[in-house]
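SAMPLE LOG
Freezer: B-3
Tube label: C17
Construct: single chain, 238 aa
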Amino acid sequence: MQAITRRFLSLMLAMALGPLQVLAGSHSALPPSTAGRRTRITPGFDYSLAVARAMMHRYPRASRLPWGYAPALVLYGMDRTWLRTHDPRLLPYIESWAKSHINARGQINKKITALDFIMPGQVVLALWQQTHDPRYKIAAAHLRAKFNHWPTTSDGGYWHAYSRRHQLWLDGTFMMLPFLVRYGALFHDRAWCDATAARQLLIYARHTNDPKTGLLFHAYDESGKSKWANPVTHHSSQ
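STRUCTURE (predicted):
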């Protein structure tokens, strides 16, 4: 599982950056003439589509990919590539992953106990827009409803996970907020979703900002009990 996650992390940025970017090391996504050499931009070569095809070649059965943020980000990038290219192989691949985790009644086969498991909702929303299969609307509504009872810090910041008690991790903003904003726009829930996203950004910024540098710490533990927490500020070291 760790090897799969590392490979996804090496692919997902290339997918997110768009058609003219590629990660060094993803040589299976490059034209044969450039493999093994310093990466150069080749005019007219669609790197996003190449990375998508490399993904499908490396993992031909999308149903074997887990429900998590790493594969979901790559799949979301593949959906953006499909919207631009309409390559007929992309959407069925993305759907095969989704349907392996979401049944016909819209039930997700993963307990949503961490913000990391909210991020795949962006793929779910994209598939709803492309297919209007009701299972995706139901699944997205389930993810949205989790925030009605999500545990929080004393000032309302969503914990990174049920198992990360009292902790705010900066990457949690990426895991949850784009989904919430997109969900609100699609399903007439914009007032609550937008207000919640803005509030969470402010809470996370207040607890993770380093006033000396203006940069952000990775994590904050309100309880101060984590081994990594500074005994005074409760921040992580970086």
